[in-house]
Specification:
This protein is mostly helical. It has a domain of 114 residues. Helices cover 67% and strands 0% of the residues. The longest helix is centred in the last third of the chain and has 35 residues. Pfam families: MARVEL.
Length: 183
């Protein structure tokens, strides 16, 4: 018997990425790692921070530019970090990295961005020149900070529920210990 006849019915060639119900880029994306409300919040964070950045970039001149520059830095950083976290959650990279580390990073990144975006929006409100592009950037900035902070609150509640589920019940012994230890 030749080797080809033995192995032919039991082996299969490498299936490749186009095999199965999904093909192309969709075969590598999995949205099920995030629950529906968090998935929507992540998408809104991404879109609103991008819109805030775009509206801020349209501003052609400013008198007090410090608030504008800080808002620019925070909105661009928020967009890039939220894009990074969304890519990690939906790509196969999530399977290669420890899931607890991804969730912990997302927890702190979301809190930091939410607080900085809120601070940058408040500073930008106090230093802007009242043009329509600045007002739009401020509105998108406040909306994005609300999305980041609400996502943080949801993650905090989930983390708290998870820690209470893992916490073992403590049983208190009511009877007195009267037996000697070396009996």
């Amino acid at each position: 018997m030749e080797n080809g006849a033995v192995y032919r019915p039991t082996t299969e060639e490498h299936p490749g990425p186009a095999r199965g119900p999904r093909s192309g880029l969709a075969a590598y994306c999995f949205l099920g790692r995030l629950k529906w409300p968090r998935r929507v919040l992540k998408f809104l964070q991404l879109v609103l921070s991008l819109l805030a950045f775009i509206c801020e970039e349209v501003v052609s001149q400013c008198t007090l530019c410090g608030g504008l520059y800080f808002f620019e830095f925070v909105s661009c950083s928020a967009f890039l970090l939220s894009l990074l976290m969304l890519i990690v959650y939906i790509s196969p990279l999530y399977d290669r990295v420890d899931a607890d580390k991804v969730k912990l990073s997302d927890f702190y990144i979301t809190l930091g961005i939410g607080c900085l975006f809120l601070l940058a929006s408040i500073i930008f409100v106090s230093t802007h020149d009242k043009t329509s592009a600045e007002w739009a950037a401020i509105v998108f900035g406040f909306l994005a900070s609300v999305m980041f902070l609400s996502d943080f609150v949801i993650m905090f509640c989930e983390k708290r529920e998870e820690s209470q589920l893992r916490k073992p019940e403590t049983t208190v012994r009511t009877e007195a210990l009267t037996e000697p230890l070396n009996a």
